[in-house]
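hey m, so remember when u said the tokens were messed up on ur end? i reran from scratch. heres the input so u can diff it against urs
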Amino acid sequence: MSYTNPLKRSQAYAIVKKTFVSPEDMVAKDIIVQKDSPRGTHFRCAGPREKVFFTTEEVRACIVTCGGLCPGINTVIREIVCGLKNMYGVDDVLGIQGGYSGFYSKNTLNLTTKVVNDIHKRGGTFLQTSRGGHDTKKIVDNIQDRGINQVFCYLSSKKKKIWSAVPSVTSNLEV
């Protein structure tokens, strides 16, 4: 089932001619191609969709940071929390502390706009991170047990081994 995106009711987006990304919008992998070359690889364009799959009240989101530190990681956390609250009306956002292992050790923080208000001024990661292995089954079980239906995973890794079960924000800037 899908629902109308809350951005449709936002005054801030009322003046924007094309607020939503169409499912047909694509980004080409190679920007410059030769005249007679094949079509090539394309990716779905990121951005808000006209229909969403959860009502504001149904959303229980979490944010986890994994891998190494990189500049701006706290800003990303802050903007996800503020975007979910201010643009979509989502109140239930958890911060998973200590990387993937935070899922099964149940180290969490309730993230509100007040909690993340000035974290972008701090170094490191507000949520803490960890490197190394993880137990995917335990993580998925924990996500289900907590009723989490949106996972924002910030990964910083030179190896770029991404756990593909969740959408992620990635960075290759190692500090």
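this time it looks ok to me. Residues 73-88 form the longest helix (16 residues). if urs says something different then somethings off w ur setup not the seq
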